[in-house]
What we know:
Low-confidence stretches: 1-8, 16-39, 47-55, 82-89
Number of domains: 3
Distance between the termini: 51 Å
Bound molecules: adenosine-5'-triphosphate
Largest sheet: 5 strands, antiparallel
Amino acid sequence: MTDDRERSGRAVPSTRLSRIGAFGRLAGGLAGGMMAEGARRMASGERPSMRDLALTPRNVGRVADQLAHLRGAAMKLGQMISMDAGDMLPAELSAIMARLRERAQHMPPAQLQAVLAREWGSDWRRRFRHFEAHPMAAASIGQVHRATLPDGRVLAIKVQYPGVAASIDADVDNVLTLLRVSGLVPRELDVAPLLAEAKRQLHEEADYVREGEQLRRFGQLLADDRRYVVPGFEPEFSTRGVLAMEYVEGRPVEALVDAPQEVRDTAMRALIALVLAELFDFGWMQTDPNFANYRWQDGAAGDNGRLVLLDFGAARPVEPSTRDAYAALLRTGLAGDRDGAREAAVASGFLGAAAVAGHRALIDRMIDIVIAELGRPGAFDFGDRAFVGVLREQAMEMAADRSTWHIPPIETLFVQRKISGTAMLAARLGARVDVRAMLEARSLLTAPVA
Ligand SMILES: Nc1ncnc2c1ncn2[C@@H]1O[C@H](COP(=O)(O)OP(=O)(O)OP(=O)(O)O)[C@@H](O)[C@H]1O
């Protein structure tokens, strides 16, 4: 989805100074926009708050444009935040997220050549029969090119934008400043541990050697499972800044919106089974549920198709304590045990003790809603989101009391991010999956963990 201006490619700002310059322009633009908007509204008799002013559609557009131009960590973090908050997200951030997905830009040819010569040596072209100069995809920290080897095999080659790794820490801090200025992150909330973790994760994602190892790991874990396709890893072309793998055909998983119900259900059943396997069997989880990380290969007669899994940069181990916490929550939830579910939620850090003391009735109502949804016999209809609105109301009421705010353990947040992203995709596709049956098939969830 690139227009002509983007197709020609603007160089990705790679020096500290030019990045700070980009943020400076953004802050200046925001301030100017706020003043103009404030003057306009006051002239018409309104008394707008700072938050109202910062979040005009124009300003949201500016934030999105700037993050897309910076790419790298800033853009990735923008995506992460909006994905994590899922249904609880303010509409303005959803808008930023949507713009970011459309706005990815790519490196101009000279910058690409410089990066590849540095990573592969100046005679790199001799190793390919053909290397497509125009990237087939531009993502947040890299762009992907298709290339053909002398033996005819086709590869997908992800090339990292220069300067990404070096700018992660500053980008994360800058994005936080931006969110604070726009009023989206309250000053009282201590987000320091989350930021430290975001930086750590982004550094990991910028290390393509690590991503190559994860690609290989998941390829082995799923090698015999016909429901999934994981691209083969190509170590001889891979470096810290270049990840080479087999090119895999497929179409965007979101395009399945128009597919028959049966196909949408098959795709989501496969994805939910994968999440459960990652959590309970593999002890490793790819924690970035960005929809672009899944593609779909249509099947032949009698076969609905296969899920293509891409992008293992965010794969991380699942701690046994996190696995057990989810097992306890699901076990009590499946059994309709409200008290047990509440206790499991506190024990695992999902809920703070202060929240339970202060908002017991609200919490119990939320647990009852989840238990009722889990308890419904037959396939769960992800397209039917009525209960999400009710849950959101209860959550908002609880969130209004800032004295009981609580950030769950980071480990849990990563798993939760995957689960809520998966549920969002299932909702988008209007899939129907008998999740209860899938959970009950796991002995871990029907018998207490030793
Ligand atoms: N092996 C492959 N075969 C076919 N297409 C691929 C392959 N790898 C990547 N792509 C295409 O490139 C896009 C970006 O790849 P990937 O998600 O790995 O990049 P990324 O930089 O990690 O992106 P982000 O972090 O923003 O998700 C994919 O959505 C897909 O369209």
